[in-house]
């Protein structure tokens, strides 16, 4: 549960674009105001087809800003002031069209102009048909925006107004509020966040991140592997480096470029990964995001196994070292903060809580990899962060955003250690 105390007195500029989910934005305004947030709204022309300006005005108890060319709005409240006099801009619903205009830097209506003119953080809550969300154009636009620092909450899976099923539903108002509160809570840890100076709360700290799959050889040409893409681990390494940590990334084979600012050690097997991790010690932070193979083939063949008519060979497996458990129990060389991942199916939080105790790590980031979820290889992740004091559910977001938020949580931990 995210603490909403940081919301009181904050100024949110809410951009309501044209989608059926706009009706939820009315509830969002009401709930934000209940928490002491000052909400000012920009309604796009399409947005005004779904909710009336009068409802928005009544709920915000303020003018509804709609027209770039309105003399009244421009003289009393120019678009620059509108965007600057907010602590955060929230776009909900963020339609495919508005995301595309934001990504392209267009300024063809008041909403787009405000978003282009602003120097304030922006959070988007996408809402659209599943095919539109999954279209490479939208995905590219979203990735570009996230790279520029735009935050995202949702979209969620579910049945949509058009009767299709899949990701595309706007996050629920309370999830959006949690994301807003998390943003302000993190910003509170950033010294002089408005200043363009580098935000490096982890400078002086050393971090080790494992990422990707391992490849366990069967013979010189074959190996056992898994579907890990390495996206999550690489995103965490990059985010930690951005916050000033000296990062060693120990990675199994992936198709990803090396993240900027990290020393990358490329390995193939679990035993090589363990050796590289031990060589990187001492570190302050260890994040084990790799999907390490639990087993390797005992007695690997030096020669390619042949189909010689004698039937398939039988492979005997032996257990790999557990890198997370080894680092968690490394005695005086144990990193101050050890974080593991748990890819589970079913009762994710219960299994992950048990895993945290079993492995001896401090936090576990748990995600659901049941069939039907796209965590493995996909761009998004829905995680629960389990610490000694309980589990926190994070809304679905891009793996880059999970990495950024985890890095901020790590930085906050070192400022005020939490269990
Ligand atoms: O036991 P399980 O594989 O589910 O645990 C997952 C966590 O343990 C991940 O953080 C993973 O990186 C780590 N792990 C490891 N070495 C292993 C197996 C898992 O570091 N051999």
Automatic annotation (TrEMBL):
E.C. numbers: 4.1.1.36, 6.3.2.5
Gene3D superfamilies for the chain: CoaB-like, Flavin prenyltransferase-like
Entry annotated with the keyword Lyase: yes
Domain Flavoprotein: start-end pairs: 10-182
Pathway this chain belongs to: Cofactor biosynthesis; coenzyme A biosynthesis; CoA from (R)-pantothenate: step 2/5; Cofactor biosynthesis; coenzyme A biosynthesis; CoA from (R)-pantothenate: step 3/5
SUPFAM superfamilies: CoaB-like (SSF102645), Homo-oligomeric flavin-containing Cys decarboxylases, HFCD (SSF52507)
Name of the featured protein: Coenzyme A biosynthesis bifunctional protein CoaBC
């Amino acid at each position: 549960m995210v603490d909403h105390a940081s919301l009181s007195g904050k100024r949110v500029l809410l951009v309501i674009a044209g989608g059926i989910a706009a009706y939820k934005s009315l509830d969002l305004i009401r709930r934000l105001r209940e928490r002491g947030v000052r909400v000012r709204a920009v309604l796009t022309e399409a947005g005004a087809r779904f909710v009336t300006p009068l409802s928005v005005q009544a709920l915000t108890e303020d003018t509804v800003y709609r027209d770039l060319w309105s003399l009244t709005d421009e003289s009393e409240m120019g678009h620059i002031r509108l965007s600057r006099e907010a602590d955060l801009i929230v776009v909900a619903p963020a339609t495919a069209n508005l995301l595309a205009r934001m990504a392209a830097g267009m300024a063809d209506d008041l909403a787009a102009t405000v978003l282009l003119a602003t120097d304030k953080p922006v959070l988007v809550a996408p809402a659209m048909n599943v095919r539109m969300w999954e279209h490479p154009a939208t995905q590219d636009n979203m990735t570009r925006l996230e790279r520029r620092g735009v935050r995202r909450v949702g979209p969620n899976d579910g049945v949509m107004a058009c009767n299709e099923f899949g990701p595309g539903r706007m996050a629920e108002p309370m999830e959006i509020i949690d994301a807003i509160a998390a943003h302000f809570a993190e910003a509170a840890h950033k010294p002089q966040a408005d200043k363009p100076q580098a935000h490096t709360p982890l400078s002086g700290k050393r971090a080790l991140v494992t990422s990707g799959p391992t490849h366990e050889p069967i013979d010189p040409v074959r190996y056992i592997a898994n579907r890990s893409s390495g996206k999550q681990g690489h995103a965490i390494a990059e985010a930690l480096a951005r916050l000033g940590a000296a990062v060693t990334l120990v990675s199994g084979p992936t198709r990803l470029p090396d993240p900027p600012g990290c020393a990358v050690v490329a390995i193939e097997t679990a035993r090589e990964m363990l050796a590289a991790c031990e060589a990187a010690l001492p570190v302050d932070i260890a994040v084990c995001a790799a999907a390490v193979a639990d087993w390797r083939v005992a007695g690997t063949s030096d020669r390619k196994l042949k189909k010689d008519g004698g039937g398939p060979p039988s492979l005997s497996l032996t257990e790999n070292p557990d890198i997370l458990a080894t680092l968690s129990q490394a005695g005086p060389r144990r990193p101050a903060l050890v974080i593991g991942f748990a890819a589970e199916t079913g009762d994710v939080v219960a299994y992950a809580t048990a895993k945290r105790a079993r492995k001896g790590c401090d936090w576990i980031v748990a995600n659901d990899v049941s069939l039907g979820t796209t965590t493995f290889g996909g761009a998004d992740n829905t995680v629960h962060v389990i610490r000694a004091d309980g589990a926190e559910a994070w809304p679905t977001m891009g793996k880059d955003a999970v990495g950024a938020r985890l890095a901020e949580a790590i930085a906050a931990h070192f400022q005020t250690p939490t269990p």
